[in-house]
Amino acid sequence: MKRLISANNLLLVGVVVVGAALLGVATSGRFFGPVSMTAFFTYLSVPILIGLAQMITLCVGQLNLAVGAIGGVAACAAGVMITSWGVPPWIGALSTVLVGALLGLANGLLVVGTRINGFIVTLAMTQILIGVQYGLVGTRTFGSSAWSPVTDFGDAEVLGIPNVFVLTLLVAGVVALFFSQSVSGRRLLASGGNAHAAELAGISIDRTLVVAHTLSGLLCGAAAFVTLAILPGVNSSIGGDWLMPSFAAPIIGGVGLAGGTVAVLGTVLAAMVVRLVDAASAIFKFDTSAVNFVVGAVVLGTVALGRLREVQAARRASILRSRRAEAALAEVAG
After folding, report:
1. Staple 146 to which of 5, 37, 83, 182, CB 3.0 to 4.6 Å?
2. Cβ atoms of residues 267 and 253 within 8 Å
3. What is the mean pLDDT of residues 158-166?
4. Short-list 37, 40, 46, CA closest to 229
5. Mean pLDDT in the chain?
6. d(Cα 207, Cα 196) in Å, to the nearest integer?
7. Contact between 106 and 84 (Cβ < 8 Å)
8. Could you give the CA distance from residue 207 to residue 213 in angstroms, rounded to a whole number?
9. pLDDT at 317
10. Using a CB cutoff of 8 Å and minimum separation of 24, what contacts does 120-123 make?
11. For 71-100, what is each residue's pLDDT tens digit?
């Protein structure tokens, strides 16, 4: 796992500090008011969770295009269970995590069973789940008054920090410990870094793919739970705008597309950057398409820069090997 103190993390911290300062100046300090700060950190929770969900699939060299669809189905299913079926609010809300994990498990089993790239599988699953989500709620919106104990939790704070953000940080900490301390986490990284070497070491690549997609779905379900806690209701639009932020956070945070790496702190910081862009968009009335263009351009630029670094590193390694070979030949000839 990438070190906590890295050039990328320090750069992201700098961007967050400068961005927040500029918004503070532009709003004459109102951005740092208690109401604004509470809203900022409350709505930061979902970008962090979906970023971590995408990070887990990226670490094994996979993609999860169904992040938003999984979260949308989980949230809408919970709304239906609570409102129409009479399921107790907390049980219904927490079922989002189970639903997300099961849908992630289905993705993993399909990837392993069909031997089709995860990009295709999750793309197809997205379309299926969008249909399921619409089938659950149609054009209706289920109001959060039906699960008021959950929204009370979402509105509450701990020492001035929103409960949902504290919960999100705890989840991020668990994810970090999973990759740094657990055998399963290290197996995921090993299989993503070098699948052939991992197989020789006795690691099941199929199992790691299933685990990665299951955990990714579980975190999408956690994001759905937060959505239930902070939004006034759920409908068929939930999750529709999750895909780009889910990629932006880990990629800008320093996770490579090739697999084998995670960057939990970087993902959290990058999600904060994306949230600052959203806040600036609301304050300055930026066009949504312009904001999406900027975020997409940053993600593409980050990927291109990472690829350039990989090529340069490979070139340096090749030159070094050539020099060593030449030195060895000269020694033999001498």
Report:
1. 83
2. yes
3. 94
4. 46
5. 91
6. 14
7. no
8. 10
9. 76
10. 122/63, 122/64, 122/65, 122/66, 123/65, 123/66
11. 999 999 999 999 999 999 999 999 999 999
pLDDT tens for 28-37 read 999 999 999 9
In this structure, is the dihedral angle defined by the CA atoms of residues 96, 101, 106 and 110, taken in order, positive or negative?
Answer: positive
Tens digits of residue pLDDT in 314-326: 788 788 888 887 7
Distance between CA 321 and CA 326 in Å, rounded?
A: 9
- Candidate CATH numbers 1.10.3470, 3.90.1150, 1.10.12, 3.30.160; the one for domain 7-286: 1.10.3470
Task: Judge whether residue 208 has pLDDT over 90.
Answer: yes
Half-sphere exposure in the Cβ direction for 240 (13 Å, CA): 10
**CB of 257 closer than 8 Å to CB of 303:** yes
Q: In this structure, are residues 179 and 1 in contact, taking their beta carbons and an 8 Å threshold? A: yes
Under the phi-then-psi rule, with left for phi > 0, alpha for psi from -120 to 50, and beta for the rest, what region is 71? alpha
User: Which parts of 45-198 are beta strand (E)?
Assistant: 142-143, 157-158, 161-162
Residue 24 exposure: Cα atoms within 13 Å on the Cβ side: 11
